[in-house]
Amino acid sequence: MKLSKAFWQTYKEAPSDAEVASHQLLMRAGFIHKTGAGIYSYLPMAVRTIKKIENIIREELDKIDAQELDMSFVTPADLWQESGRWETMGPEMLRVQDRKQNDFCLSPTNEESITDVFRKSISSYKQLPVSLYQIKAKFRDEIRPRFGLMRGKEFIMKDAYTFSMDKACLDEQYELYYKAYSKILERMGLEYIVVEADPGAMASGNAKTHEFQVIADSGEDVVVQAKATGYAANLEKAATVRPELKFTPESEIEEVITEEMPTCEQVAKHLDIPVHQTLKTLVYRAFYGQKKVIYMILMLGDDKLNEIKLKNFLKADKVEVAAEEDLKEFNLIKGYMSPYGVEGKISFLLDDSIDPKSSFVVGANKENYHLKGFTPSRDLGSFKTVDLRMASVGDLAPNSTETIEFRKGIEVGHIFQLGDKYTKSMKATVLNQNGKKEFPLMGCYGIGVTRTMAAAIEQHHDENGIIWPAAIAPFHVYLAVIGKKAETKQMAGEIYELLKEAGVETLYDDRGMGPGPMFKDADLLGLPVRIVLGERDFAESGELEIKIRKTGETFKVAKSELVEKTKQILTGLMSN
Fold this sequence. Notes:
Elements: H1 21-28, E1 32-36, E2 39-42, H2 44-63, E3 67-68, E4 74-76, H3 77-83, H4 85-88, E5 95-97, E6 103-106, H5 111-119, E7 130-139, E8 154-164, H6 167-187, E9 192-196, E10 209-215, E11 221-226, E12 231-234, E13 254-257, H7 264-271, E14 279-288, E15 291-300, H8 307-314, E16 318-321, H9 324-329, E17 347-351, E18 360-363, E19 369-374, H10 376-379, E20 384-386, E21 405-419, H11 421-425, E22 430-431, E23 437-438, E24 441-448, H12 449-459, E25 461-462, E26 465-466, E27 477-482, H13 486-501, E28 506-509, H14 515-525, E29 529-534, H15 535-541, E30 543-548, E31 554-558, H16 559-575
Parallel strand pairs: 3-7, 15-17, 17-20, 27-28, 27-29
Antiparallel strand pairs: 1-2, 4-6, 5-6, 7-8, 8-24, 9-10, 10-21, 11-12, 11-21, 13-19, 14-15, 14-16, 18-19, 21-24, 22-23, 25-26, 29-30, 30-31
Helix pairs in contact: 1-12, 2-6, 2-12
């Protein structure tokens, strides 16, 4: 492509609302155009990168016998009503009506649509497993779209679905996608971590699910990792262990004055004890449909509650901090409450980091007073012990002595085992070997295509611009010419044709600009290789300059060796 003919423009300044590097650089480098809040048009440079990402995905999914289809973007409400999600999806799903007042939505995801396709096409176990995918725009009405393509309303996504007769087959399909996703990200040249994740509303709390996180300092997700053991999980899922703690042996209950000391840190300092010798008391209410159940939760004083673990353990529809009226029902005072002496319909949960046979400091259920010597096994009639804490600095990986580390990541892929959640609710059955109807088990596998493009920039950029991994760069080479003589321009044209004939994707800057502005555009665009034909240098040495954007390395090569050397460099960049 000759730049004089390209629909492309760069900008010196990023928009004021561009907070992260990918948003700033995609706008400045002429990749995207903002149509509205969270909605972008993809300009020619972006489309080239998007197509490369899509093609890598297609190639790897074709290898595992997944088949591509294309489902409708607008979905009728009755499919969502069958699954029960029309009411529960929330305001993120944009609902619309046609002229006949029929309800539809702009698809935020496609479990219902694919299940409808499946149930009308497949009838026997002999036709399983089925593995289908599409690459298509999705729409989620984010209340606060931000970070450009990282959290937009409209985005391109690859979503895939498998249908299996039994758990063993589902596990096989899941493993195929796990390996395919790993290969996809490796081919794109991205550093990533696969982490255990929480299935959220997509499936049951014990379903197998993993996130594929691209490592970047700007990532919104916190990843817990122990490299030596291979353990990795997102912060909400991590089941780490505190190093061994020393607790106070069982002792008698003693009331102490703690005036205006509602926090564990204040009480510990006042009593000159470690914070983990205090217990933090939290009261939550869990909802099961319309039914409400009150729980009192005890944590070590310097731990934080992981609400996702709590919700999953309780198998509740929703959990939230108890309201004032709930506390009044049990005569509880914020900052001074504990389970000691509490009566009524309330259940007690202890985090499993607590030694129930040791004594701790807890609230006295009386303002400005705490109790020393509270021993759960002695002073609490009935309770359950469960992992409820958020992983923290200094923790150990499960079943290991290795200390975990925290890294920031950007979730670009997520795979789930859905089970029969959708096939059962939508009555999608097949006949088994005995001629009886069964609900197949589903898997769901997503990759954010445009999100991956943004994540690649978050991981690969510097103060001058983007540094594209070679596999997904819009072009491989930026060819620049410095000089005004007709023979110099003619030679540049010949070199451009030689590179094209050799299959090297080349962007030829024939705009006649000076080297300063031209090189700034080259760095901002971030193509893997820059080739410069300098009129003066070539006249003196007969050589051109090759510069690698990623490393800054430069090479001088003769025209006769240029194509071979360029292909050699690109091959090396593709394999890194």
